[in-house]
Amino acid sequence: MFNTPFLLSFSLLLSFPLLFLFVPRILPPRHVPISLPDELDDLALFRRATLASFGDGATLSRLGTTNRKPKIAFLFLTNTDLHFAPLWQQFFQNNEEFYNIYIHADPYSKITPPGGVFSGRFIAAKKTQRANPTLISAARRLLATALLDDPLNSYFAVVSQHCIPLHSFKYVYESLLLKPISDTRSSSLPMYRSFIEILDDEPQLWDRYNARGKNVMLPEIPFSRFRIGSQFFVLTRQHALVVIRDRRLWRKFRLPCLNLNSCYPEEHYFPTLLSMEDPDGCTHYTLTRVNWTGSVNGHPHTYRPLEISPQLIHKLRQSNSSYSFMFARKFSPDCLQPLLDMADNVIFRD
How far is CA 81 from its chain centroid? Predict the structure, then answer.
């Protein structure tokens, strides 16, 4: 029979492979740094997009274009398959001249490219990670690519693979581009604003401000100017340019977090930057509905197939602003068929 010391040694030997297998799943993910080559690539892209935008002659209005048929650029930020591509396909159907699609897919994830209107719409992408400034970089990369690709792109809507449309394309397009918000400073001047959530009174704001260390954000960003908001927004061309031209705030937000429990850079960079640069040009609310009731580990409520109904769609559209919610998240992939079943009669019937 084996003696006890032998059994103990043998058990420890067997445990090492298990440690390598399970420890990465238990411990928090290691910070993914933004390498110098990646940073230089992005800066070159941002510079090209900025120069092209100022040279296309389409930046005369508040919206950022004088064209009669401006477009909406839909920017998909994903690290999985685009589960709801068939639903979005119906959303875009017969509106080719009014939109463009750009997809940033994490190259380290195994993703099956969807066909149809999504074919050929993947941009040059880099690795992303939750609670990490790489998500900011990815969104800026999408904005810059869309700015450079088509001077008619006038609104830029960032959505995820878990987002769905809540209205028809016609409704979204007319709401954004044909019904500008009245400017209270001048009744004769229509004003196109960016739809981005900007909050300054959240209870977790102080912890998030200090996630990189005490006073690290100073002097560029005092606590009184730090903001929180959703990472999914709809920006005007003017504000998309503000985002890709920024260097000052980015130097702070690209720093790694010390407190990962309070680290959500993508929820702070965009609302803080635009609040500092042009608060009156933003609505301070988002057009993407998210249910934070019962959130787990920073993730919102995920809708399942049994919850999908016409009543849910009508409820998700409701907002406290003058604009209805136009998109919603977060839905599990198996919600696709129930959503498709009521797409024509409910979702796309406004």
Answer: 16
